[in-house]
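Quick one, tokens below. Sequence please?
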């Protein structure tokens, strides 16, 4: 089969990505529906497929993509929030912890989160000599605290460790709903806790945590993410580890790129 010329592939990708952006931007809501799910699925497939770096760079630097990258990330952020909120509501509607647990496992990206957390925990274990981390903070936990619950489940599976995860988000609704959902699932306050706060708030104390996880959607630009990272690092205790989620190449259309860490962050 004859390969499509490079420039034609680039043009095709740009056209399809822009079409997804236009369709999403014209919708009255991004709450899960057949149409919303279909468009996001197409966009995710385009951005998560494996491309030659030359093609990816040409797509990312194309004027039509440069013009939409920031608003596209904002739409993806809203869409992810709405998806999480939708599933949290479904879990809260369940009649018992057992039913809620079954519904929780049906979340479309549950396996992705579990694989990611497993990889992160292994990386953390290999990077520290002080043993397995036991106290985690997740910043930007959202309405559905998948990271926190996957940390608890995977830590218990890997080494039998009972860990504590503290979830922080600036959205009061997200904190209220995610807290209620965890109680519905049967989790106790000494396992998973919640706080509504901004990163800069004096009430946010990260001194006692072994690991602080920063969600991918915290900060919509590299500059904002750098500012948040610097503030977080200054609140952490000695020897604590900062876990950053970011994106590269085509996935940077979905999530903001972390960029290089400032020297002041590396020295904290």
């Amino acid at each position: 089969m004859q390969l499509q010329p490079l420039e034609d592939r680039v043009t095709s990708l740009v056209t399809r990505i822009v079409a997804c952006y236009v369709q999403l931007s014209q919708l009255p809501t991004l709450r899960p529906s057949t149409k919303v799910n279909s468009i996001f699925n197409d966009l995710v497939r385009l951005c998560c497929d494996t491309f030659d770096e030359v093609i990816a760079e040409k797509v990312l630097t194309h004027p039509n993509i440069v013009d939409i990258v920031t608003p596209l990330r904002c739409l993806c952020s809203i869409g992810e929030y709405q998806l999480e909120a939708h599933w949290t509501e479904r879990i809260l509607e369940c009649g018992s912890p057992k039913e809620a647990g079954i519904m929780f496992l049906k979340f479309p990206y549950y396996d992705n989160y579990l694989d990611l957390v497993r990889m992160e925990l292994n990386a953390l274990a290999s990077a520290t000599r002080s043993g397995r981390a036991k106290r985690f903070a997740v910043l930007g936990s959202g309405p559905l605290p998948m990271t926190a619950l996957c940390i608890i489940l995977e830590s218990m599976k890997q080494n039998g460790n009972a860990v504590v995860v503290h979830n922080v988000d600036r959205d009061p609704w997200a904190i209220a709903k995610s807290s209620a959902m965890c109680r519905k699932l049967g989790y106790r306050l000494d396992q998973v806790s919640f706080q509504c706060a901004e990163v800069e708030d004096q009430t946010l104390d990260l001194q006692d945590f072994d690991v602080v996880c920063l969600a991918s959607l915290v900060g919509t630009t590299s500059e904002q993410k750098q500012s948040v990272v610097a503030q977080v690092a200054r609140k952490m205790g000695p020897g604590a580890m900062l876990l950053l989620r970011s994106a590269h190449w085509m996935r940077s259309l979905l999530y903001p790129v972390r960029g290089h860490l400032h020297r002041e962050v590396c020295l904290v």
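Residues 261-268 have pLDDT under 50 and may be disordered. Residues 69-92 form the longest helix (24 residues).
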